Amino acid sequence: xxxxxPFARKVLCYxxxxxxxxxLRYEGVQCGKNAGLESHLEMGKKLLAAGQLADxxxxxxxxxxxxxxxxxxxxxxxxxxxxxxKSKSALPDLSKVIELKPDFTSARLQRGNLLLKQGKLDExxxxxxxxxxxxxxxxxxxxxxxxxxxxxEMQRLVAQAKKDYSAKDYKxxxxxxxxxxxxxxxxxxxxxxxxxxxxxxxxxxxxxxxxKAASKLKNxxxxxxxxxxxxxxxxGDHEMSLNEIRECLKLDPEHKxxxxxxxxxxxxxxxxxxxxxxxxxxxxxxxxxxxQSVLKTEPDVPLYTFQAKERIxxxxxxxxxxxEAIAICSEVLSSDPQNLSALKDxxxxxxxxxxxxxxxxxxxxxxxxxxxxxxISEGLERAQRLLKQSQKxxxxxxxxxxxxxxxxxxxxxxxKLALQWHPDNFQDSEEKKKAEKKFIDIASAKEVLTDPEMxxxxxxxxxxxxxxxxxxxxxxxxxxxxxxxxxGFNPFGSGPFNFKFNFN
Length: 504
Known about the structure:
mainly alpha
């Protein structure tokens, strides 16, 4: 037998003491750890009950980190996720609970319900069947049986909807999908299928709604963004089309379809915005050229063709190109007879072209569709005055100048006609009498058209030299003049003259 010396006995004694201390310390750590876990679970539970979801979630995160094997921590965190509407985050936690505790029927039932909403019908059915096998409570059994029947019905409806879609019975397919989506609210494939039905039926607004939902339900849904962009493009909304195609490229910069479509939309969008800026700057000729480029960029989508022609019609009218405006505005109105913009622009072009009856007709058509438009009312009144005026004296026609003529042109035309129709040129009394009348009209036209205020009134449909206007409240000292008034009037100046024409 080996004897142990005093030093060795002392060492063994200390070693045993150290082992006891280590053992006690370990128990303390375990005890503290469990106490911390319970504290997080309890505090999280209280905060959840108080509706303080973010704070509750923080405590359950801490509980899961503290003990990754604690199924209750996962379950309560899943409960918070569900309360916050974050079902995608709740699902992995519920799966972890079932993995740690397979007989936890509440977690399995909740997971089945989430899978049903996601349209994962086979997986949901498995969960509901497992609940029924695991001695559930009466309430859980009732819910599981109800959801199992619902899952079976949904599977039948999915098969029928797909069959209807293949047979091109889009209306019936959409009706079945309506029922399905009420239950399987998070199923991306069902929403995309219904969107395709709506596209085939021409109900683009409904298709957009489903595709927007699909783009949110699936993180990398480039196909949904591409379809959204193409729908907006065909609807003529180039800016929304550009926004959606950019979302596709954010997810996948190398996406061939999205990149190709992006280049087309970007080019068209740039041309349209540039054209509108030119219109704002009143650079109508440049705007016309830009919109003609739009017609070349996108000749196959009727809405862009129509919009471009409508704006070209507007530009021609504003640019005083009456015949061109009338032609293209008429083209627009042949497709859309009640188009207010085209009616107003063509009416203005008719006025420029002195087709007053046609202008009145267009303004009346426009007013029938919008009685409160002040521009239409004022335009109609002006067209009616000009029509009435055209049936009397037209000073522009008398001088043979356009309504856009400058003062120099007017004076030049006046001098030429004054020389031609001066009464001293005529010996025959009848001819002289006719010339006197003509000369008076020529001189009156010159007086009105070289006076800015009088010309403005005339352009608005009021003859400032018409005695009727004077009697009805017209302003100014002007009145109808006879030949004697103009005797001694110098057509080459502003004062009297004694010039006589001699023809020997």
